[in-house]
Amino acid sequence: MSPAAPITHVPVLLAEVLENLPVPAGGRVVDLTLGLGGHAAAILARCDAGTRYLGVDRDPEARILAKARMGGDARLTILADTYEDVWEHPSFQAWMHLQSPDGVDLILLDLGVSSLQLRDARRGFSFMEEGPLDMRMDPDSGATALQWIAEQTEESLANALFAFGEERASRPIARNILRMFNDGRLHSTFDLAQAIYKVLPRDVARRKKQIDPATRTFQAIRIAVNGELSRLATTLEHAVAGLKVGGRLGVISFHSLEDRIAKQTLRRLAGVYDGPGRTSPVELPRLIKLVHPGGLKPTEAECAANPPSRSARLRIGERLCEPDTETARPHR
Ligand SMILES: C[S@@+](CC[C@H](N)C(=O)[O-])C[C@H]1O[C@@H](n2cnc3c(N)ncnc32)[C@H](O)[C@@H]1O
């Protein structure tokens, strides 16, 4: 990213978020992926002085920028943590206890990476920018992408590329990546991209108007490095438990793997049985109702104005009264 480039992240599905995730007067909001505060600023702009908004992000740079953007807003509290672990964070628990003993009105999860992370070459997320193979959302913790690759066998790397990137050429790509690593030729995002283009040539993909062949492998390694999918379902369960009756959980996903977890988890929490056979062998408590069960997608106008929004989908669950343990209904 050039130093002069403005740091922006256009909040995705913003109109849909504002319309379908309303905050009542004096409402309580938990934003588990604060990012640069795009959704937060727009939501807070519509809320009254009694609103309290807790923003969580694992990325220190995002928190600094969100604070610079809205730090003067006394309604906002920013916490450094992951959305998986924040439930045990003493400051989070204190905020919930003090501000929202009966649960919150809105919990928002806008998954994945921000434009800030993608565009900053030093973070190593993008094959479009040359940078170190890092890819950590929190640069202060965990292994970098290069360190993670160093730990892989050809089989485990291929499995990760297939599982987290749905990459069909996972085996030859994994072999090539490890060959370059063992030859001491794998250091930067461009080196990784070259390892992929050797197997899936970029000009062929361009001619066929396909996505860049590096997309799936970069996504897979990023997901593995940040453990992005491992505890998403548990996070959604915590979030539903943290809502007050009538409160809503909104989850924005950006690829099929995230969306599958969001969809399956919300359906299960809505008491919908998706397993084999027609009915569940156990009764599934019905904790939420699904709002727009198929999820909401961006309009064509949004996709044209902000191409990264193309693959986004918003799924919403609304908290019901007490766990309603009517027999889970078959697949609908
Ligand atoms: C798509 S951006 C959110 C953008 C934000 N809604 C906005 O409008 O500015 C996703 C953010 O979630 C953060 N994030 C991703 N995984 C996380 C996790 N497990 N725990 C906490 N934050 C996470 C990233 O650091 C990033 O800042």
Largest sheet: 7 strands, mixed
Instruction: Work out the strand percent.
Output: 15-25%
Overall body shape: globular
Please estimate the helix content.
25-40%
Number of helices: 14
Query: How many DSSP-defined strands?
Result: 7
State mean pLDDT (0 to 100 scale). 93
Low-confidence stretches: 325-332
Instruction: Give the strand order of the largest sheet, numbering strands 1, 2, ... along the chain.
Output: 3-2-1-4-5-7-6
Separation of the first and last Cα atoms: 47 Å
Radius of gyration: 21 Å
> What is bound: which ligands?
S-adenosylmethionine
Kindly list the characteristics that best describe this protein:
332 residues; alpha/beta
Please summarize what this structure is:
It is built from 14 helices and 7 strands.
Care to describe what's here?
40% of the residues lie in helices and 17% in strands. The chain has 14 helices and 7 strands. The chain is globular, with a radius of gyration of 21 Å. Mean pLDDT is 93; it is low at 325-332. S-adenosylmethionine (SAM) is lined by residues 9, 11, 33, 35-39, 56-59, 62, 82-84, 110, 112, 114, 137. S-adenosylmethionine (SAM) binds next to α2 and β2.
Write the layout of secondary structure elements.
Blueprint: H1 14-20, E1 28-31, H2 38-45, E2 52-57, H3 60-70, E3 76-80, H4 90-99, E4 104-110, H5 115-119, H6 145-150, H7 154-165, H8 170-182, H9 189-199, H10 202-207, H11 214-226, H12 232-241, E5 243-253, H13 256-269, E6 286-296, H14 300-305, E7 313-324
Parallel strand pairs: 1-2, 1-4, 2-3, 4-5
Antiparallel strand pairs: 5-7, 6-7
Helix pairs in contact: 7-8, 7-11, 8-9, 12-13
This protein binds S-adenosylmethionine (SAM).
